[in-house]
Amino acid sequence: MRSFVTKALVATAGLGLALATPIAAAGSAQALPPIMISRVQYDSPGPDNGSNASLNAEYVVIKNTTRSNRVLTGWTLRDKTGYTYRFPSFTLRAGATVTVHTGRGTATATHRYYNRSWYVWNNTGDTAYLRNASGTTVDTCTWKGSGAATTC
Question: Signal sequence span per UniProt (predicted)?
Answer without folding.
Answer: 1-26
